[in-house]
Specification:
This protein is of the alpha/beta class and 293 residues long. The protein contains 9 helices and 16 strands.
């Protein structure tokens, strides 16, 4: 009986959050270890299904870097990186689109449907969902020299999100699962960082939350202690001081851009924790780092 009472207390703790997010949109970037470990994959699918059943509208944007690397290696296509970004020529882009849209996306959709949800897979081409342009990267050189322009090939950045297809899917109670491939005015496909796509989608939908799943605890201070909640001003200061570094920089910048565009709250969450999404959504303490205005 005591165990049943504890379960009831957990539900009561979640009640204000369920009420607060009812009929609201939550954009979740799905990536990292949570996409590889079988138990975490199952837990993620169940978390998303539960959110939908209690009246929240989850929108998933997924990555797929390791899966792309695996296929490129099998096909003996060399991968080059510049400042952490994959150089994407036409041949590589064909593989990226094949893996993200044709394999990873369908696996996530199938997983959610298998566990009782209703998911639909999309890429940026579907309904003209994600418009993109070629990303321009400038690398600093000597102090008296102009920056070097780096050609990353078909690496893109989001110029526009057309949410009509997402709203149509939402009305029919389906869960959209989005592959981060955009389409340009030249009708070419572009490989876009999944965090950037998730942030842009959240901004255009005026989402209540943007959650980025990653493979670290969250944002750490200079003493490597987890910061549970920080303001955008504090995040700017941590970036300027160098306390936020490496792969965490684009994630924090993505959150700041989403907040500036009208997203209510953003979160960087440790996807290695079981049911990380539910813990962040429906408990008093949450998991990872919350970034707010």
């Amino acid at each position: 009986m005591r165990e049943c009472i504890e379960k009831a207390k957990i539900l009561i703790e979640a009640l204000p959050y369920i009420r607060g997010f009812y009929n609201k949109t939550v954009v979740i970037k799905y990536g990292g270890h949570a996409m590889v470990d079988e138990e975490l994959k199952k837990n993620f699918a169940l978390d998303i299904i539960l959110m939908k059943y209690i009246g929240i509208n989850p929108v998933i944007v997924h990555g797929g870097g390791p899966q792309i690397n695996e296929v490129l290696t099998r096909m003996q296509i060399k991968t080059n990186y510049v400042e952490g970004m994959r150089v994407t020529d036409t041949e590589t882009m064909d593989v990226v689109e094949m893996v993200l849209v044709g394999k990873v996306n369908k696996e996530i959709v199938g997983l959610i449907n298998h566990h009782g949800g209703k998911a639909v897979g999309l890429s940026g081409r579907d309904g003209d969902l994600i418009r993109a342009k070629k990303m321009t990267v400038r690398k600093s050189q000597a102090e008296d020299a102009p920056p070097e322009l780096i050609d990353l090939g078909r690496v893109g950045e989001v110029t526009q999100v057309n949410p009509d297809i997402l709203q149509t899917i939402e009305v029919r109670d389906f869960i959209p699962v989005i592959a981060p491939v955009g389409v340009g005015d030249d009708n070419f496909s572009y490989n876009i960082n999944a965090d950037l796509v998730a942030g842009a989608v959240a901004a255009h939908l005026k989402a209540a939350k943007l959650i980025l799943l990653t493979d670290v605890e969250g944002v750490l201070d200079k003493n490597s202690r987890l910061l549970g909640s920080i303001s955008s001003g504090e995040a700017d200061a941590l970036l300027a001081s160098g306390a936020i570094a490496g792969g965490m920089i684009p994630k924090v910048k993505c959150c700041l851009a989403a907040l500036a565009a009208g997203v209510a709250k953003t979160h960087i969450v440790d996807g290695r924790v079981e049911h990380a999404v539910l813990l962040e959504m429906f408990t008093d303490q949450g998991v990872g780092t919350e970034i707010v205005l």
